[in-house]
Amino acid sequence: MATTLSFDASSDPILQRRREIQGVATASLKRRKVYSKIAVAVCWAFLGIAIIPLVAVVAYVVIKGLPAWNPDFFTHVTTPEGIAGGGVWNAIVGTAEIGIIATGVAVPLGLSCGLFLAESEGKVAGAVRFTADVMTGVPSITIGIFGYIAIVKNFGYSGLAGAFAIGIVMLPVIVRAGETAFRGVPPTLSEAALALGARKSVIARRVVVPAALPGVITGVLLAVARGLGETAPLLLTVFGNQYMQWNPTKPMNALTLVIFENSSQPYADLIQVAWGAALLLMVVVLVLSIGSRVTAAVLRREKR
Amino acid sequence: MRRGRRFGLSNRAYWGLLVGMAAVFVALVVWYLVSIVVQARPAFSTLGFSWIFSKVWDPTHGRFGLLPFILGTFETTAIALVLAVPIGLGTAIALAHLVPDRLRPPLSTAVELLAAVPSVVYGLWGLIVLAPVFRSTVEPFLSSVLGWTGLFNGPSDGVGLLLAGVILFVMVLPTMVAISRDVLAVVPVEQVEGALALGATKWQVLRKVVVPGARTGILGGFTLAMGRALGETVAVALVIGNSPFIAHSVKAPAATLASLIVNNFGEATGTELAALFGAALVLLVIGISVNALARVLVKSTVRGGAASVAVA
Lengths: 304, 312
Known about the structure:
The complex is a heterodimer. By secondary structure, chain A is an all-alpha fold.
């Protein structure tokens, strides 16, 4: 019996259908690949667009700020418009004093709250945590308003009022960073100390805080960097001062205030000082941010 | 045998100390909220409630409408977000999944450092560098190309809504990118590899797997950036032109709630001062709502971890 095995591949309906499907699949793959290429290219383009202004800000501050940096800039006080050769010494002193006072108060208070949050569960802790979370995002000008109502209305404009407002800006950041750092400490460490008969306060001081130190330092320095960069709360609380003022119970000047006041003046020398102050502020903030990372990394390595 | 002296506070005293400190913190926050409400009350009692949405701000005639400033606040934020949402998302995707591994840590660090640059520096840059460029080039160009929309009428001053929005965009971009990148990077590798094994292209993986997985976190980051833009004071006050009228053009000078407060606070007395406290209260309500929303959204994606630190 002879079987006809002739098989006409080009006209077989099943193969025909299969070829069609393959054609569609190839076309679709090509199209998908093209889409993918375009979309990825758009992402790269957006990355480029994002980098341009950010690099431009940093570059302008460095290029325009460096010429302002001369010995007078760091040693003389600010001058009113028209008088050449002013510096920002009084603003440096003001920012430093306000920063130190605010940090000195906010760090112990904030870290205690962080420890409280790390060691407790339940509704009360949840409420405190939510308060801290929301406080990190409230407009800083409203904190300046609070400083005005709470301190300035009773005692007048002063560096201390500014430190109060800046401290409140820093507090929630320290609380949350502290909590995160304390929670990262392995419970076995404190359980071991507990088994040795140590009291909770001793465990906190000798075990939990040292173990959490890298995270704590990072959080605190970030909070300080943020506090020093604030302008709006200071405008309503320390007011600004042309003259040298060491006494924090009197109106003081601050670097951010110098930048804000000078930048809207039509005098080139004042704007020059503003760029110099911006560069100084940016360097301080960057040193704090980078310093916090480096310190944390070094401390972590020592632990291992 | 006598027990050795025990060091440190008793457990009860230690716990009391912690609870006390937390109580101080909460008390400060309550004091802050209550004092603003109390100081704003005279404005509500003398002007009624409708003053918030009244159009005219004219202190010499006792008119203290906040509507122009509320609109200005939302308009500048809207301009910032229109630019920041696509560009921020694209940048975050590129940083999390497209940039070569070796470049990723330095670029990510750079973004986080930029997030720490004080806002007044952005304001200074906007006023001195960007405003002249906007006046001479960008705004005339936009008017000629998009003039038919009617959004770009009027003179090109440089300062105004558009510049304020652009400065806010540059300012919130690092924060937004840092948060989005964190949540995009934690999408499980198995899902990405699974999609790739099924023949998905790179973009299909990003669009169908990576971005949906990080969706709520990204949304939270955007809302946080929005909160920052709404409440930003000095950068906006420097570049918005400070006009108490409702802007009829994107190029027109305007004012926001925050810039209104900071510009008028020095001379204000009586009802005007109360109205400024009222403006602070409105701003606070807007800010807290946006932030609470953002916290809830971010929390549902990542619990603790890198994102919450970046947010702080």
